[in-house]
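in:
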């Protein structure tokens, strides 16, 4: 029977039939988890559990979200969930498995990442949401919209004194708390110090600067300033600027790349781009060439280009003509580019240019052949590695890998207690114009009924993508017995610029049709109950879910949106500052969404808030009260419009949470509300 879609396989490359070898391997290693961690999260039986217990199991923050190993291999730093609404950086002695120090975030702060500066200083990245009024009260200069702002800070923990400091916290004229600051460590020949590349103040047109920062006191000074048209600066191992990129003409979208030598500069090459953004500066090769990110090939996929600073000669370092290269892998201690990573239809992949590192990666994949595994960190002598591995939908774990013995030692599970309840596969399906759309299909082992109810779970962005990596939303829904479709519709990233740009100006158009076509293909397969289909998403995904309810009421039984955009003219006006302007951001929004001057009728027609009378399905709306990306007024506007149309939606304010649902309590609350809503309308 022709189902209309092609299955690319599970996370292991083939349909899963019961536990695989990786389940057995990681299950055995799981015995090393401490009894305290086991008590923290009890096993969930999806067949018997109610919505609240499933929401608690999948909505809780990961017990471990990131791990880094010290240069000498004696300690690991762990980004952990404190279980009290905050995050912790736990520094653990590997030999005795004992915490040596703990840094706890303050109220309102979110721990984002951990790493090491040297053997004795652990680093963490934290963020916090502020209002414009708070920023002005701090004495910082600010110009822009009245939206909330997410600021990033770095914390350093000294293992000798067990004290921690916020970097640049007392330094004037610094935007160290902005999301644009980049901390570089270690610095060759300058132990105990790092460099932060950031704007010199929180003013939109501030100069780019390089700060030398003391990792023990947190204090810093500016050692170099660059003109405000500077987009990025790349430092060498000694912390000296060697290349900078700049925007030359915002109207013509031109830029250049300049070699920096002391106080002298020369243009290496220049060009123009779609929105005027220069190429990304990704690092330096061991041979001195600089690595940039550029598009190329038949699908215009992102690839790594190595540029000779003396001649300007460009060489393709790594490229895949089907998938975008997601990042350059840098050695944590030399800061040299040593590899590339990307995600295929299902899972992340890595390629190392250094033969020794590639050998370690190959050995890891041979040791756990059915596992989604990647290298995330290593010691200075490359004798020990931190790897991340996933087995089925159990949430993933971090291990220490010793290549010499091929030994894997468990450091921590992300979700202790979860067990396999669903199969994940990559599929493609034919859109109405014949183009095949890639997607992720999560199928519960115990569907609620046959044919199964379907939840179309739409990613945000829309410049983003879904993969077969563990997704707590999708697996919560599978635990409730729903089949889950996650389309990588045209407009998504990961498959090249040709695929991405096909979604430009297609909010409510081609992008929505691709999503809706996926649901119809599954209906034709006979596996899905056509009267029990929900569209669900966050951010852009919330927009797409409500747009489906507006445009295809015959298909959508109910719709739910979290932190969504629903009024496109209002969104574009806010992003443009109320007027059409030139610049990277302005070009981006007018090209990808539309311009108020020329496209306003289309923007109105594609806005759920402005067409609320067309929405007949039950609607659930949720929004974080500290969302710094999409203002909560977007949700309130749709809520008011639906109420005025005589169809008031269910509404939940996720108090204190951000756009990414970074708080475990509100994540659990969101899943509980969503599970209850779906159970009511897909019964």
């Amino acid at each position: 029977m022709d189902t209309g879609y092609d299955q690319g396989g599970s996370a292991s490359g083939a349909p899963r039939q019961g536990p695989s070898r990786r389940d057995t391997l990681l299950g055995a290693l799981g015995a090393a988890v401490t009894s305290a961690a086991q008590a923290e999260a009890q096993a969930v039986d999806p067949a018997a559990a109610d919505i609240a217990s499933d929401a608690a199991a999948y909505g809780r923050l990961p017990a471990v979200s990131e791990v880094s190993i010290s240069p000498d291999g004696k300690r690991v730093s762990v980004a952990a969930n404190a279980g009290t609404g905050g995050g912790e950086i736990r520094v653990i002695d590997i030999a005795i498995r004992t915490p040596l120090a703990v840094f706890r975030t303050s109220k309102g702060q979110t721990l984002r990442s951990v790493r090491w500066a040297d053997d004795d200083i652990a680093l963490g990245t934290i963020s916090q949401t502020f209002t414009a009024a708070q920023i002005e009260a701090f004495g910082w200069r600010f110009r822009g919209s009245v939206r909330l702002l997410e600021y990033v800070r770095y914390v350093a923990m000294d293992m000798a004194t067990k004290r921690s400091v916020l970097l640049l916290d007392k330094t004037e004229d610094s935007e160290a708390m902005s999301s644009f600051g980049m901390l570089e460590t270690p610095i060759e020949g300058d132990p105990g110090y790092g460099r932060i590349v950031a704007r010199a103040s929180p003013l939109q047109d501030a100069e780019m600067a390089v700060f030398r920062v003391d990792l023990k006191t947190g204090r810093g000074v500016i050692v170099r300033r660059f003109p405000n048209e500077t987009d990025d600066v790349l430092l060498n191992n000694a912390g000296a600027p060697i290349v900078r990129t700049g925007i030359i003409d915002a109207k013509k979208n031109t830029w250049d790349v300049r070699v920096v030598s002391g106080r002298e500069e020369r243009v290496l090459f220049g060009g123009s781009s779609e929105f005027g953004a220069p190429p990304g500066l990704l690092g330096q090769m061991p041979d001195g060439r600089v690595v940039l990110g550029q598009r190329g090939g038949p699908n215009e996929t992102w690839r790594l280009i190595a540029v000779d600073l003396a001649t300007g000669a460009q060489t393709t370092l790594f490229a895949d003509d089907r998938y975008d290269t997601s990042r350059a892998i840098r050695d944590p201690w030399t800061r040299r580019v040593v590899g590339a990573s990307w995600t295929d239809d299902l899972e992340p992949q890595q390629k190392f240019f250094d033969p020794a590192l590639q050998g370690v990666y190959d050995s890891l994949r041979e040791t756990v052949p059915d596992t989604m595994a990647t290298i995330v960190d290593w010691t200075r002598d490359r004798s020990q590695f931190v790897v991340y591995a996933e087995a089925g939908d159990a949430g993933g774990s971090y291990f220490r890998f010793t290549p010499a013995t091929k030994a894997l030692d468990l450091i921590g599970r992300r979700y202790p207690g979860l067990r396999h309840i669903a199969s994940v596969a990559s599929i493609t399906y034919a859109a109405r114009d014949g183009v095949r759309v890639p997607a992720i299909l999560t199928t519960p082992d115990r569907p609620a009924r046959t044919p199964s109810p379907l939840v179309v779970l739409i990613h945000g962005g829309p410049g983003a993508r879904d993969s077969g990596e563990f997704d707590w939303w999708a697996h919560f829904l599978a635990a409730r017995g729903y089949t889950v479709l996650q389309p990588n519709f045209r407009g998504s990233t990961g498959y090249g610029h040709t695929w991405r740009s096909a979604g430009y100006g297609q909010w409510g158009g081609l992008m929505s049709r691709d999503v809706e076509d996926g649901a119809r293909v599954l209906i034709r397969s006979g596996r899905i109950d056509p009267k029990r289909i929900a569209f669900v998403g966050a951010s852009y995904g919330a927009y797409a879910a409500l747009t489906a309810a507006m445009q295809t009421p015959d298909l959508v039984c109910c719709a739910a949106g979290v932190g969504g955009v629903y009024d496109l003219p209002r969104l574009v006006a806010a992003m443009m500052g109320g007027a059409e302007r030139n610049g990277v951001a302005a070009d981006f929004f007018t090209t990808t969404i539309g311009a108020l001057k020329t496209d306003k009728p289309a923007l109105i027609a594609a806005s759920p808030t402005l067409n609320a009378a067309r929405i007949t399905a039950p609607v659930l709306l949720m929004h974080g009260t500290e969302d710094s990306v999409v203002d909560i007024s977007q949700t309130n506007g749709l809520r008011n419009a639906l109420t005025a149309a005589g169809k008031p939606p269910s509404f939940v304010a996720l108090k204190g949470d951000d756009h990414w649902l970074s708080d475990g309590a509100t994540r659990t609350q969101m899943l509980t509300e969503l599970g209850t809503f779906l159970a009511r309308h897909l019964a």
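note: The longest strand covers residues 528-538.
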